[in-house]
Amino acid sequence: MIRLAAFGLALASLLSLSPSAQASKREFSHAAGFICGAGPGATNDRFVNGDYRAAFNVLNTDRRALDVEFTLSLTFPAAVGGGAPFEPGLVIPLHTVRLHPGEAVMIDCRELVDASGLPLGGSPPYFSGVLDARASRELSVTLLQSAGPRDGDVSSYAVTVVEGRRVRR
Fold first, then answer.
1. Residue 20: helix, strand or coil by DSSP?
2. Structural domains in the chain plus CATH codes
Protein backbone atom coordinates (compact mmCIF):
# COMPACT_ATOMS: atom_id res chain seq x y z
CA MET A 1 0.00 0.00 0.00
CA ILE A 2 2.84 2.39 0.86
CA ARG A 3 4.59 1.57 -2.44
CA LEU A 4 1.38 2.32 -4.36
CA ALA A 5 1.01 5.69 -2.61
CA ALA A 6 4.67 6.53 -3.32
CA PHE A 7 4.19 5.55 -6.98
CA GLY A 8 1.09 7.79 -7.16
CA LEU A 9 3.00 10.76 -5.74
CA ALA A 10 5.89 10.20 -8.15
CA LEU A 11 3.50 9.96 -11.10
CA ALA A 12 1.69 13.16 -10.03
CA SER A 13 5.06 14.95 -9.80
CA LEU A 14 6.02 13.81 -13.29
CA LEU A 15 2.67 14.89 -14.73
CA SER A 16 3.01 18.34 -13.18
CA LEU A 17 6.28 18.75 -15.10
CA SER A 18 4.80 17.62 -18.40
CA PRO A 19 4.77 20.04 -21.37
CA SER A 20 1.01 20.40 -21.17
CA ALA A 21 1.21 21.39 -17.48
CA GLN A 22 3.99 23.87 -18.26
CA ALA A 23 2.01 25.33 -21.17
CA SER A 24 -0.85 26.18 -18.82
CA LYS A 25 1.57 28.42 -16.89
CA ARG A 26 2.26 30.44 -20.02
CA GLU A 27 0.28 33.45 -21.04
CA PHE A 28 0.17 36.06 -23.75
CA SER A 29 1.43 39.58 -23.18
CA HIS A 30 0.13 42.39 -25.41
CA ALA A 31 2.22 45.46 -24.54
CA ALA A 32 2.37 48.82 -26.34
CA GLY A 33 3.76 52.25 -25.59
CA PHE A 34 1.66 55.42 -25.62
CA ILE A 35 1.58 59.14 -24.75
CA CYS A 36 -1.35 60.87 -23.06
CA GLY A 37 -2.02 64.52 -22.29
CA ALA A 38 -1.05 67.99 -23.29
CA GLY A 39 2.61 68.06 -24.23
CA PRO A 40 5.03 70.64 -22.91
CA GLY A 41 6.21 73.78 -24.63
CA ALA A 42 9.07 73.79 -27.13
CA THR A 43 11.69 73.78 -24.35
CA ASN A 44 11.23 70.06 -23.64
CA ASP A 45 13.06 67.49 -25.77
CA ARG A 46 10.65 64.63 -24.98
CA PHE A 47 7.61 65.56 -27.09
CA VAL A 48 6.62 68.42 -29.32
CA ASN A 49 4.00 70.79 -28.00
CA GLY A 50 0.52 69.41 -28.57
CA ASP A 51 -2.28 67.25 -27.27
CA TYR A 52 -1.83 63.45 -27.30
CA ARG A 53 -4.49 60.77 -26.83
CA ALA A 54 -4.39 56.97 -26.83
CA ALA A 55 -7.05 54.26 -26.60
CA PHE A 56 -6.52 50.51 -26.38
CA ASN A 57 -9.26 48.22 -27.72
CA VAL A 58 -9.06 44.65 -26.41
CA LEU A 59 -11.22 41.91 -27.96
CA ASN A 60 -11.61 38.30 -26.79
CA THR A 61 -11.54 36.21 -29.97
CA ASP A 62 -11.36 32.93 -28.05
CA ARG A 63 -14.32 30.57 -27.61
CA ARG A 64 -14.01 30.77 -23.83
CA ALA A 65 -14.20 33.60 -21.33
CA LEU A 66 -10.78 35.05 -20.49
CA ASP A 67 -9.50 37.10 -17.58
CA VAL A 68 -7.39 39.99 -18.85
CA GLU A 69 -4.94 41.61 -16.43
CA PHE A 70 -3.88 45.20 -17.17
CA THR A 71 -0.62 46.70 -15.91
CA LEU A 72 0.66 50.23 -16.51
CA SER A 73 4.43 50.80 -16.55
CA LEU A 74 5.26 54.50 -16.59
CA THR A 75 8.22 55.71 -18.58
CA PHE A 76 7.58 59.38 -17.80
CA PRO A 77 7.29 60.77 -15.22
CA ALA A 78 9.79 58.46 -13.59
CA ALA A 79 9.26 57.15 -10.06
CA VAL A 80 11.84 59.41 -8.42
CA GLY A 81 13.65 62.51 -9.59
CA GLY A 82 11.30 63.63 -12.34
CA GLY A 83 12.58 61.53 -15.24
CA ALA A 84 16.36 61.34 -15.16
CA PRO A 85 17.83 59.38 -18.09
CA PHE A 86 17.43 55.62 -17.68
CA GLU A 87 15.37 55.98 -14.51
CA PRO A 88 12.39 53.60 -14.60
CA GLY A 89 8.90 54.73 -13.76
CA LEU A 90 6.27 53.18 -11.53
CA VAL A 91 4.69 49.81 -12.31
CA ILE A 92 0.98 50.02 -11.47
CA PRO A 93 -1.28 46.94 -11.52
CA LEU A 94 -4.68 48.07 -12.81
CA HIS A 95 -7.85 46.01 -13.17
CA THR A 96 -8.57 42.44 -14.18
CA VAL A 97 -11.51 42.22 -16.59
CA ARG A 98 -13.39 39.07 -17.59
CA LEU A 99 -14.19 39.11 -21.31
CA HIS A 100 -16.63 36.56 -22.68
CA PRO A 101 -16.31 35.38 -26.32
CA GLY A 102 -16.70 38.34 -28.66
CA GLU A 103 -16.64 40.95 -25.87
CA ALA A 104 -14.30 43.92 -26.02
CA VAL A 105 -13.19 46.71 -23.71
CA MET A 106 -11.56 50.09 -24.36
CA ILE A 107 -9.01 51.73 -22.07
CA ASP A 108 -8.18 55.35 -22.84
CA CYS A 109 -6.08 58.07 -21.22
CA ARG A 110 -8.77 59.13 -18.74
CA GLU A 111 -9.34 55.53 -17.60
CA LEU A 112 -5.58 55.03 -17.17
CA VAL A 113 -5.42 58.11 -14.94
CA ASP A 114 -8.50 57.08 -12.94
CA ALA A 115 -7.47 53.42 -12.51
CA SER A 116 -3.86 54.20 -11.59
CA GLY A 117 -4.53 57.11 -9.23
CA LEU A 118 -1.92 59.21 -11.02
CA PRO A 119 -1.90 62.81 -9.77
CA LEU A 120 -1.71 64.42 -13.20
CA GLY A 121 -3.45 67.72 -12.54
CA GLY A 122 -0.16 69.58 -12.06
CA SER A 123 3.25 69.32 -13.60
CA PRO A 124 3.81 67.47 -15.86
CA PRO A 125 0.36 67.56 -17.45
CA TYR A 126 1.17 64.52 -19.59
CA PHE A 127 2.53 61.02 -19.11
CA SER A 128 3.99 58.22 -21.17
CA GLY A 129 4.25 54.51 -20.59
CA VAL A 130 3.50 50.97 -21.65
CA LEU A 131 0.15 49.25 -21.12
CA ASP A 132 0.29 45.46 -20.90
CA ALA A 133 -2.82 43.29 -21.33
CA ARG A 134 -2.19 39.67 -20.29
CA ALA A 135 -4.40 36.62 -20.73
CA SER A 136 -4.06 32.85 -20.99
CA ARG A 137 -4.88 33.04 -24.71
CA GLU A 138 -4.05 35.49 -27.46
CA LEU A 139 -6.27 38.57 -27.73
CA SER A 140 -6.98 41.02 -30.51
CA VAL A 141 -5.53 44.35 -29.33
CA THR A 142 -5.35 47.61 -31.23
CA LEU A 143 -3.86 50.92 -30.12
CA LEU A 144 -5.42 54.11 -31.47
CA GLN A 145 -3.26 57.22 -31.12
CA SER A 146 -4.05 60.79 -32.09
CA ALA A 147 -2.22 64.08 -31.77
CA GLY A 148 -2.94 67.68 -32.60
CA PRO A 149 -2.31 71.21 -31.47
CA ARG A 150 -3.64 72.19 -28.06
CA ASP A 151 -7.31 73.12 -28.32
CA GLY A 152 -7.24 72.16 -32.00
CA ASP A 153 -8.36 69.40 -34.30
CA VAL A 154 -6.60 66.06 -34.67
CA SER A 155 -3.69 66.42 -37.07
CA SER A 156 -2.37 62.85 -36.96
CA TYR A 157 -3.98 59.52 -36.25
CA ALA A 158 -2.52 56.02 -36.14
CA VAL A 159 -3.94 52.54 -35.56
CA THR A 160 -1.47 49.86 -34.47
CA VAL A 161 -2.15 46.14 -34.10
CA VAL A 162 -0.48 45.01 -30.88
CA GLU A 163 0.94 41.52 -31.34
CA GLY A 164 0.82 39.11 -28.42
CA ARG A 165 3.87 37.19 -27.34
CA ARG A 166 4.10 34.13 -25.11
CA VAL A 167 5.61 34.66 -21.69
CA ARG A 168 6.02 32.44 -18.66
CA ARG A 169 4.02 33.32 -15.61
1. helix
2. 27-168 (2.60.290.11)
